[in-house]
Amino acid sequence: MKSFGMTLSGEVALPLGFVAGRIEAARHAFGEAEAFRIGIAAASVLSGGPVVVGRDGDAGEDDGDADRGGALSDALARGLAARGADAIDLGDCGREEVDFAISYLGAAGGLALRMRGADEVILEFAGPGCRPLSVDAFRRVGVLARAQNIDAPLSSDATRGSVRRMDLREAFAWYVTGLVDPGAIGSVRLCVGAGSRSTAGTLAAVAEALRARGADLDVIGDRAIPADRLPGAIRRHGCHMGLNLDDGCLGARFLDDGGRVIRPPALAAILADAAIRRAPGGAVLHDPAYAWTLGDRVARAGGESRNHSGGAATLAQAMRDAGAVYGTHRDGRHVFRDFMFRDSGMISLLRLLEVRGRERADLSQLCEEQEARFPASDVLGFDIPEPGRAMDDLHAMFRPAAIRIHRDAALTMTFEAWRFHLWRRGAAGLGLTVETRRDPGLLADRVAALSQRIGGYAAAG
């Protein structure tokens, strides 16, 4: 068959999952041969400039094979070059640094390799300007990677691309520290637990850039503190904040000065406030899960709050369309206009430190004040056999008392003193958040009632 400028014949078994712009695979199924094929396929859809490759520093280290992550990224780069693309190898780095490099170099796209735990490999794709690949382009990557003869014939020496090693960590650190006021940050002590080689290196570079700008970030821990001991270490060392990097920088969990995890509603509210103060009157997009919390904080900062019900996958594009300065999703995603409309744990960290210094208050105090205004639940999940039926029944049950109802793929019901947001999670699950107005007792009562009701469907099933 003729496709994408190559003649393809048959397919090979490739036990990889191609899901929404990234490849997920069991670690044993993702070797150098698979990475090489994917590099070739990626070069066929990413054209018009170099392609950036980066790898998580701990990829492959759990079984003592410290070079495995490097071998996989080398294979990706060789595959890109074999099909005529110039590959830029960033070495150990997180996905944020790959995103930065795409913009900084004007690259055609990027591939970010990382591990999820000890058993799964994840390869994330981004196109020009850090935009996600189109559904069609990503489908072509899958078709080409599985083509039996994708590696023959390869580019001649005249058309073969190059592989260059490049270190942009210092440039990345200088860029992100320029998105905050170092004078507001002042002198701060940060306690860090877990994480990878790459996140430790990035933090060190950011601390150095802050010092050059007049602030002082003292990092305690640097991978040596297990996550379960991090709260105690924060208190023992008198740190102003903690950072749990078990899931990398993008999945970072932030802890206040008392060692408590900063909960999603308060975290999003503080980050929204910081974004609006840098862009007065700007818009903030958020899903309906914490609409009261976000709406109130954005309004007090002088911005515009807008609900985005399209889900995490469409948040960045919706922000581009609206020119929004910040966007957040209930899954913990924090997307910044200043960072190519991509999510960034490092910018989230710096903005939290900036707000703490500007307000001259501990993060624990700032979070308590925010949560007192609108007590809210965490994201609650329920596995039930008929989620659609449960949603219909709850809609009918609470409809007489509701003052506002919004129903699409999700259900949002608003009452005088409380509200809830309910959505489908996969084929057999529901997600729930509840908010109240200055009434933690009502929050506990409503969460218990709704949980009992929804849980009853699981029992009935």
TrEMBL record:
**InterPro entries, alphabetically?**
A-D-PHexomutase_a/b/a-I/II/III, A-D-PHexomutase_a/b/a-III
Q: Does the keyword Transferase apply?
A: no
Is the keyword Lipid biosynthesis assigned to this protein?
Answer: no
The alphabetical list of record keywords is: Isomerase, Magnesium, Metal-binding, Phosphoprotein
Cite a single Pfam family from the UniProt record: PGM_PMM_III
Q: A GO term (biological process) for this protein?
A: carbohydrate metabolic process
Single GO MF descriptor: intramolecular phosphotransferase activity
Q: Which residues form a coiled coil?
A: none
Cofactor(s) the protein needs? Mg(2+)
Q: Which residues form the Alpha-D-phosphohexomutase alpha/beta/alpha domain?
A: 267-371
For this protein, the record's SUPFAM superfamilies field holds: Phosphoglucomutase, first 3 domains
Q: What is this protein called?
A: Phosphomannomutase
